[in-house]
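Lab notebook, bench 4. The sequencing result for the construct came back, and we need a structural model before the next group meeting so we can plan mutations. Quick request posted to the team channel:

Model the 3D structure of this chain.
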Amino acid sequence: MPDKTLADRYELLDRVGSGGMGTVWRAHDRVLGRDVAVKLLHEGLAADATFAERFRHEALAAAKLTHPHIVAVFDTGEQDGVPFIVMELVSGPSLHSVLTDHGALPVAEVARIGLAVSGALAHAHGRGLIHRDMKPANVLLDEETNEPKVADFGIAKGLEDSGGLTRTGGLIGTAAYLSPEQVSGKPATPASDVYAVGCLLYACLTGEAPFGGETPVAIAMQHINEPVVPIQSRRPDVPDALAKVVHRALEKEPGRRYAGAGDMQRALARTGLGAGPPTDLSAAPTVQVVGTAAVPARTHTQRIDRPRRARPKPPPSTAGRILAVLSAVLIVTAAAWLTAMYLQGRSPQVQGPLPTFAPSLEPSTPEPSPSPSPSPPPTESPSNDFPLDLPGFGNN
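Done. Here's the predicted structure in token form:
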């Protein structure tokens, strides 16, 4: 824990959150007698003198922003070489926490949040300040009024200009809410904040950011290469007017989006949504969402199932032909042997060796013609069953 008192004025009470750039503490301002929020930058970032200077400059610029939906910046300083920024203390959860606990939000509440956030960004853009890191974690909801307030103006700008993250190959901003041009290394513009708000509203309507993945780089590249799953295919109750506003904000090309947050705010106002009082999310029913924000199939490709061609059978090899001939010979020999055994079993009087299938080499002698003399009565012969002079059989 750092020293309990910063600049002999801000007494640190308890830690309320931390992130990639620093830690936020609830503190008491002894001079004005009020509680404030103090963000202490990580020592690794504070060690960069260029970043520290840029951070102080942008913090002063953010302090000039006065808007009901922007967290006010009161002061900035340095303690033991670590820069800090003193801000308005917003007692309430972040939008990120609400989405984690509740999931998708009611349509009217999403439109109300969109109106407030885009209005805050329009105020900043009019004074030359781009947020560069819009995401649900940087939108705080006041626990008394439930009004959204945008936080962390100026910090991402200081990081980008100093190279504090880009030198190590990182990306400025959270990958799930980063515009395609920022992923490509191009300068951020007001249209980049518009894209981030589109991602934020998409998450509020579906419970998930437009793209997801296993690594920040994989998610970031989808902003460049992959189309967004249509909101109404996941949540059919979203009105057409609101869906069109969000999808226009999510255009890949900055020129196809709203020129600035003010234009987006006016488009949201024309939908007629979000003009009512805040919704009590604790009593709001759970919103049903279809599917997930998985990487969609590319729309410019289509799979066509073609009939498969029959593959010609390969010709048998020499060894296969030899095996086939031997198998046939064995089958024929076995059948002949079984036939002979069967016939022998039917003619028990037949004496001598079994007939063979080999053809006889001796010429067969024709039987003599019967003589007129009386002959003995004929005895029973195997010829009653089959002739012994069948081709291929020899005489006994």
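The mean pLDDT is 78.
Will bring this to the meeting.
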